[in-house]
What does this fold into?
Amino acid sequence: MSILGKPVSPSWPGGYWGHWGFWAILLLAFDLLLVMAFIWLERRWIARVQLRLGPNRAGPFGLLQPIADAVKILLKEDIVPQRADRWVHFLAPLVAFSATAFVFVVIPFQEGAGLVPDLNVGILYVLAIGLLSLIGIFMAGWGSANKFSLVASLRAVAQIISYEIPMMLALVAVIMVTSSLSLQEIIRQQHVPFVILLPLSFLIYFIGALTEIQRTPMDLLEAESELVTGYHIEYSGMKFALFYLAEYTEALIVSLLTAILFLSGWKGPLLPPFLWLLIKVVLVFMVIVWIRGTFPRIRIDQLMGFSWKFLLPLSILNLFIIGGELILLPSFPGWLAPVNIAIAGLLIYLCSRPFRIGFGLGLLKGLATTIRNASRIPITTQYPWEKLNVSRRWRGQEFVWDPEKCIGCSVCAQACPHGNITVIASGKGKERVVEKFEIDLGKCIYCGLCVEACPTKSLAFGLGYESARTRFSELVVGQEELAAPGKVPSAFARPEYEAELPQQTLLVNQKEHPWESP
Ligand code: SF4
Ligand code: SF4
It folds into this structure.
């Protein structure tokens, strides 16, 4: 055993259990801290690739947002459905989280640093233990007594098993080249990062890993549009937090494994090895989030078809090619990298013909579009202090009517294409009195023709949203309501009101809408 490269003395305080306890606490702290950092990073980074700001209120740059979220979620009430299988419901989040946390046992953080960094079957251990979280997901679906949860958990099983097979076959190529199952030994043997030397294995592994950690575009077990929030619909408070933690821990583990298996782990010049590993982990996670921010969710049949008809044949072909190369060149030299890249391109093109994605140029174009956004100024507003500039053609959903100015001419009623306005007036000339003035908002299309036609400017759009009524009959608004005190006409619809209005309502920005300059 050793810590950060230095062998642990046999007189380690507390002996074996002391060493075990120290690393267990250290790894748990590492997991929790990095998960908090990942939650913040994901929100900020995905916002940047989508031209938004992301969290920016709680603390500088929104750094305290994960803490605020954690406090909020822990204070929430724990609700268990009446028909739920209480024990299964209770244990599911524990199983899901502990299965992911146990993977840290074999992660080498640098040469010899970790709980059991040089386990001779490290990669097998990671794959076997990592899959146990699937049992937690299935327990959650089964124990919740909710059909949506059950369908989501069954999807999870189908999806994860489908992608686990090509993913494992891709990792077999890594094992064949290094002749080792130890994660530490795999890093030692990467003189050329395997991402270049084994590009096809990397691609298959990465797609499979994205599916396993339920990240968009493969997050079908949480597809809100179909399954509400998936297998954890019936979870709240601390139990939901554990699922959330398990999900981000899985993302952290996938980032760690990608860095270890394909990016030479802790290897790198100048900086300390542990820092190199951390930098690579963060970069991999940013790529995962970048993909999430670019592509929409795919359909379940497309997802399954992609695995069985594309990834699986590709991973088998890849194994044969790497095996052939190893027979011809047992030392597997670095100059094979360009050859393998060319072979990967050709195989992807041939196997992807039924999917019509060519070389994936369309996908790369999408990724280029979103990464370009990261250098642009985000388009967002600091609501409520800043408000979005809107067009002069914008119409509010509230009418303001001035009985003092109205002459009962009925021009507005005649201008209305839907016949929404009823005007009844009596008398002639200066004696004319408006007896009834009504607008049916249920039929109104807010075209503004009545407002534009009114010769006395007694009718205007307001700033409120009055159409939020529950019955159609309530949508017919009369004189009292239209002329209620406190209503403010909108300057967007009637620019001539601008001089009379308070500053915050004058939001028309001529720079934004130069074509609408008066
Ligand atoms: S906004 Fe258009 S549809 Fe609505 S009452 Fe006025 S003229 Fe009629
Ligand atoms: S609101 Fe204007 S157009 Fe309509 S009746 Fe009154 S004055 Fe005439």
The CA atoms of residues 199 and 341 lie 6 Å apart.
